[in-house]
Amino acid sequence: MSDESITVDAGSAALLVVDMQPDFMPGGPLAAPEGDTLVEPIGRLMASGLFRHIIATQDWHPADHVSFASQQPGRSPFDTIELYGQPQVLWPDHCVQDTPGAALHPDMPWRHATLVLRKATDPAVDSYSAFRSNHGPDGRRPPTGLAGYLRDHGVSEVFLCGLARDYCVKWSAEDGAAEGFACHFLWDLTRPVDPAADDAVRRDLIGAGVRLVESSQLKGA
């Protein structure tokens, strides 16, 4: 990561705040270590005026979601199975619709969000990325509609932050780059479920054409 400043054009840039929900923070069933430390700095960035377009994603699982280990007899959380021809990690029950742990964190300024995108609402299909769900029974990854929304609003650059670095933020950045957006991964404003995966995450993101940056590099136009 270089330390050069990055000018944010409020009209063509969007801030994507991924899954800032209590269930992904310490005390939750699928916690990213120190995930709660992001609440204040991401909230400050949301309120900074740098971004006209702020999109929040919200993991929003039905209680019988296929990715929950509780729905797979004889399986435990973090086991991996094959689902629709792809590896699927089985998770502890988390971000179940209408539970406190699924709410957007109450101490963040969500009034600045221009869109809240709920994902993983289909009980049969998991969804990490803000742009596409995971593979479904037909072998495809259905789009969420976010790419079209951003293009309709003149967005060409996406700055990503939130939880978790090694899953939902990473997949969103890779898919965003594949959709043709210039994607900037705010490394200091993410936290991983598995810190040991950081080197692999960096390699994958760089290989996908995603730029790794720090929030301190951002400045207004």
TrEMBL record:
Stored Pfam families: Isochorismatase
Keyword Metal-binding: yes
EC number: 3.5.1.19
Keywords: Hydrolase, Metal-binding, Pyridine nucleotide biosynthesis
Pathway: Cofactor biosynthesis; nicotinate biosynthesis; nicotinate from nicotinamide: step 1/1
GO molecular function: metal ion binding; nicotinamidase activity
Keyword Hydrolase: yes
Stored Gene3D superfamilies: Isochorismatase-like
UniProt record, GO biological process: pyridine nucleotide biosynthetic process
Domain Isochorismatase-like: 13-208
NCBIfam families listed in its UniProt record: PRK11609.1
Family indicated by similarity: Belongs to the isochorismatase family.
Protein name, as recorded: nicotinamidase
UniProt organism field: Alkalilimnicola ehrlichii (strain ATCC BAA-1101 / DSM 17681 / MLHE-1)
